[in-house]
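Quick log. Single chain, no ligands specified.
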Amino acid sequence: MPKRDGISLAREIRKKGDETMVIYTLSTTEYAMDAFGIHALGYLPKPVEYTELKKTLDMIKTLYDVRPQKYIHIMGDEGSQKFRSWTLLM
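-> predicted structure:
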């Protein structure tokens, strides 16, 4: 199996849509412009510092919480149950 870098993987993900939130950890700025081109939400320099990681994850949570949610409705003995679609994947 050929090796794949993060930029080519993100390009494949973007072909399927823009919903996925991408954050890069970079040890150099060599690929920063490529990462910018795939609309990454963040760039964390290596070694990643906890405070920067926490700020980035908090930003993602805020963005995720305000976007429209997709739900799956399941009819059961107690009536209809509504689940966020991502919770069923965990």
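Residues 50-66 form the longest helix (17 residues).
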